[in-house]
Amino acid sequence: MLKGFKNFVMRGDIVTVAVGLIIALALSTLIKAFTDFVINPIIASLQGGRSLGLGWQLGHRGNKATYLDLGSFISALIYFLIFMAVVYFCIVMPYKHVQARRGVVVFRDPGPLKTCPACLSEDLPAAAARCRHCCAEQPPAAAAPRPS
């Protein structure tokens, strides 16, 4: 039983995912600090004065519970975009490159799709003979016209 577990854990895919997750967590902390201590003060300074930040007070003045804080939302959006870009360029792109060198295609673009005339689902592969949703027979895919 332990040998099977060891073989499962030591598979290359599991190790790759674990390393990627650890790197993502470390990058998340770094990017969170960047948005909290660099982006947030810049956004708060845009409003000026002694405001709680970029936003509007909906209730009693000075009550943080009724403050609509757009600055924090913009900061979270910037955090998300930076984090996704870092994950893509530091984890996904190198992983695609390594897998391509091994002859494995990952994250490929989806092939051409067609619409089922019976149930109107639009996610059928062009070569499908039956609809995956309603099981209706599909007309054969039209051959691409040849250039003359």
Automatic annotation (TrEMBL):
Membrane topology of the entry: Multi-pass membrane protein
Entry's Gene Ontology molecular function annotations: mechanosensitive monoatomic ion channel activity
Membrane-spanning segments: 12-31, 70-92
Subcellular localization: Membrane
Listed InterPro entries: MSC/AndL, MscL_channel
Domain of life of the organism encoding this protein: Bacteria
Primary location: membrane
Gene3D superfamilies from the UniProt entry: Large-conductance mechanosensitive channel, MscL, domain 1
Keywords from the UniProt entry: Membrane, Transmembrane, Transmembrane helix
GO cellular component: membrane
Protein name as annotated: MscL family protein
Origin species: Streptomyces morookaense
Lineage of origin: Bacteria, Bacillati, Actinomycetota, Actinomycetes, Kitasatosporales
